[in-house]
Records
---
Amino acid sequence: MVAFDELFDPAFLSALSRWSLGARRVAGGGRHGGRLSRDLGAGIEFKDYRPYSAGDDLRAIDWNLYRRLGKVFVRLFEEEQDLPIYLLPDVSGSMFLQTPAGPPGVIAALRCTLAFATVGLNHHDSAGLFTFADRLEVIFKPKSGHTQIMTFARRLARLAEPAAGNNRTRLVASLHRLASMNLRRGLLVVISDFFDPGGVEALREALRPIRHRLLIVQLVRPSDAEPTLEGDVRLTDCESGEAADLTITAPVLARYRTAYAKFNADLADLARRRQAHLLKIDVEGDLVAQLSGLFEDGGFRI
């Protein structure tokens, strides 16, 4: 059992207060927040005029313009609303794989999730939690308010242990379900090793109907690129339980490196075509230092 204070230590939580998310206009129809939206209404920044229509708020009429032109116009202002942040951490079996070199990937996944939630909640945005493994689980839809941070952290801490019967990576199927939920457009943060059986091309197709801005957080460890195996080994899939007996030779390792390099290139190409940001996180490294690179100069802009 991973202790709450071990997962989210005070130094980690303190670092989050220095970071922020920068966004262009957010989609309308949300809660009051700190970002300009595409809606026009009772905001504070003047945008335009339009002719008065029956039922308009009389307080919005520009009487100075009426005295000059003899026509009734209402002032339109840009509304400030929240940015909904949809957080999708991977909690499949591969996230709980323990290695001698470092902690399981789920620790970095959950800490990254809390980092983005905290940054959003500290700046009047809303954050929702959706986990995936065999299926998409809606933990809670976006909530706003600084007081939600600890509630969010406690719920994440419960995910630090694997759930029985929910082991395989089915990101593609989970994204199909997410697309069907008709969520208000926002920022979708997917945190995973992206080892879905369907491959990157299936992931590309699953993302096609999703209109959210996308941030891809790829969890890696040095042994992914440079495995230290040699000789005769039995490899067991940590999710399916399937085993394969192999003899690791130099040509086999070369083929593996080629395949892994292509996987990374395909994921980078997906991010580029989606105009998404791809962030690689070494699960064995200092998470605060790696996230600081994303939030440098106080803000990550999407």
---
Amino acid sequence: MTNSLSLISSLAWRNLWRNKRRTGVILFAMVLGVWAMIVTASFMRGMAIQALDDTINNLTGHIQIHQKKYLDDPVIENSFLSNDETLLTSLAHTDIVSWSKRLRVPAVISSERDTFGITLIGIDPKSEARLSFLLSAIYQGNYFSDNSDKGIIIGKKLAEDLETKLGRRVVIMSQDKKNELADRGYRITGIYDTPQEGMETAFAFMTYNSIEKLLKTSQLSSEIAIITRSLDQVPATLSRLKAANPDLDIQSWDTLQPFTKLIEEMYTDFQYVWHLIVFMAMSFGIINTLLMTIFERTREFGLFQALGLKPRFILAQVWIEAIFMLAIALVLGNLVSWLTVLSTGDGIDVSAFAQGMEMAQLSNIIPFIIVREDLLLANIIVILLGLLTSLYPAWRASRLVPANAITRV
């Protein structure tokens, strides 16, 4: 049996290169198909991971804690005490890497030139630096040195719209806890820049001390954002926090940002559909090549059977030829895909479509990310469906009648 398999494999390898041009063309098409599967999957994976990372870094975190009415009515009355001992104890667990309290309120910001509505966020500089984008996004000026800093940080786009700049003063107006007008002037000590201009016009930041003085509050928080050790850890941490703090509204990132979750699922579904479309195109080439091979070698197969070679060996020979083609295509396709991804470096620049990318909550640089699951999926699809596709031509070859095959001109 071993000798027969060795002989059949040797014949299959030689026959594969009998017509080098045709074999080269189909191999090129198959390599292109494998490349398209892997590179497209890495691009889609990069988009999904980037959208998730941006969502988590752009103030959302893995988990957020609010007062139960806050998400429906985000005003200062719907805040909670952030110094509650039960809450602090539950946040001190080892499954939480970092957390930061915030006080968010609707506000109006005015310069000498214009006025805009914003969301004003009071932060603790030290804890916020470990959790969100703000520290790394400072474009001009400086991040808050500590809680005693009396300045304000605004977005680059907002500064342009207000026709103001670093060092200038702006006036902030909001409502305090007694529903009275609270207003005060602040000097712009920092300007942040993000790929999403909507973020730059929506949020302005000051220290917790500053916003408490403005709103005449103490120890109140609108939200607490939390980063866990990993995304896989989120469900367990969420359940633990809810059990420890039943009076608070505690939600994970996918509940708070359902659009990002939808994008992630959409990319995954598209990947499966794209793999099937590419392979269907490849399968026509495989079937056509093998059928042409069988047509050209009809007399040869008939002679083999007349000499006593059983039909199953004919089937095996044609099938092994297909296996050789698949193996070569997979090796070359994976190699070319890796080289393509490596050549992109940090990703591709899609800033020409900046507005569309912002609507999809994506940055202007899209990275290519290859993960083991995507690589295995593409290879398994090609192997399994390739073997199934090649069964029909192999079966056709094994069903040839020796007498008719030998006399065929």
